[in-house]
Amino acid sequence: MDTKNMSMKALGTLIAGILGLTLLPLIGSIGAIVLAGMANSELANNPSLEGKGMVKAGRIMGYIGLGLGLCGCLFTLVSFVFAGLGQASTGFIPSLMAF
Q1: How far, in whole angstroms, is CA 50 from its chain's centroid?
Q2: C-alpha neighbours within 13 Å on the C-beta side of residue 21
Q3: 32, 60 in Cβ contact below 8 A?
Q4: Residue 96 pLDDT > 80, yes or no?
Q5: N or C: which end of the chain has fewer CB within 10 A?
Q6: Is the CA virtual torsion 91, 95, 98, 99 positive or negative?
Q7: The pTM is what?
């Protein structure tokens, strides 16, 4: 692939998608989705640029990362709610148990 004709936004989409699945779960995923839209516009306006496959891969990874990140946040929230309900139902206060 000739790097002179490659869209840098397409490359950025791919990198953000990879980061969204590894180091920066929600931030990278949202960045990949936004960059994918910008890269598609750039590729449509300039047919000499390449990178449609990178845009598609980055967008897919972005949506997967966003879905996994939201599921993780939801799971954490539900876990905290049930942990709080379980502790509230026992009716015991740890600091008063020492007396």
Answers
A1: 25
A2: 13
A3: no
A4: no
A5: C
A6: negative
A7: 0.81
